[in-house]
Amino acid sequence: MNRYQKERMLFVAFLALLSLTLNQFGYSYFWIIIPIVLFTMYVAYNAFHLEEQFFLKSIIQGKKGKKGIAITFDDGPNAKITPQILAVLEKHNIKAAFFCVGKNAEESPKMLKSIYDAGHTIGSHSYSHSKWIDFSNKKKWRIEIDKSQDIIESIIGKRPRFFRPPYGVTTPDLAKAITGANLLSIGWNIRSLDTMNNNVLDIVERSTRNLQNGCIVLFHDNLEWSGRVLEEFLVRANKMGLEIVPISDLIDERAYEN
Ligand SMILES: [Zn+2]
């Protein structure tokens, strides 16, 4: 049972008790609307914070005691920006993880293959990454997940085990689809917010402020400034004495099904 199921059960019991009490003291049942609204707000908050592990377990940091940090890129492959990222990674001889959108991989299969061939990890980030994706039911989520897995497998010959929820939003339906597909939900504990800001130094400042061994850092490989952010970030991480390691080493999980 996940946190949501447990807390929902407790909440229903609380509502039953509250109704009885309201009735006992001659108050209107109407007022149970207040706890219902508050609980709904609480559930919505948790949907936007996967680190709360509310609907399902997400890995957001390395295994205890592991040295190093992992860097991850979402939303690619991008024909223009991903090569810049790959060049920086190669120059520094480090491995990162790319949570790819199936639709983009379908459009740039060569780009996806180059990421994989360079020794980086490929994870899935849904097929469409559409604006409305979080309203999908379980069946629609499975189509999103399976379609992306099939495309990635047809290009690199491997089926990823790592899935990153689009927008970092989780819902009960997504949780069921991820579990059903035998995937691991991978989050982060350092969010660079590189999509909301194009000031490279601000982004690097933000993403290194609480950086320490075991961290998983979220970047994107589809922004004009992504390459410069990565360069500056690596300089800073190096000064802090932090080594960049493959995500599978940090979390002790294999990256592919086969
Ligand atoms: Zn994304």
The shape, in one word, is globular
Q: What percentage of residues falls in helices of 4 or more residues?
A: 40-55%
- CATH topology assignment of the largest domain: TIM Barrel
Per CATH, which architecture of the largest domain?
A: Alpha-Beta Barrel
Strand content: 5-15%
The tally of structural domains comes to 2
Mean pLDDT: 97
Query: Can you tell me the CATH class of the largest domain?
Result: Alpha Beta
Which structural class is indicated by helix and strand composition? alpha/beta
- Rounded to the nearest angstrom, the radius of gyration is 21 Å
**Ends: how far apart?**
29 Å
Low-confidence stretches: none
The count of β-strands is: 8
Give every kind of bound small molecule, once each. zinc ion
Task: Describe the strand arrangement of the main beta sheet, using strand numbers.
Answer: 4-3-2-8-7
CATH superfamily of the largest domain, called what? Glycoside hydrolase/deacetylase
Q: How many strands, what sense, and barrel or not for the largest sheet?
A: 5 strands, parallel
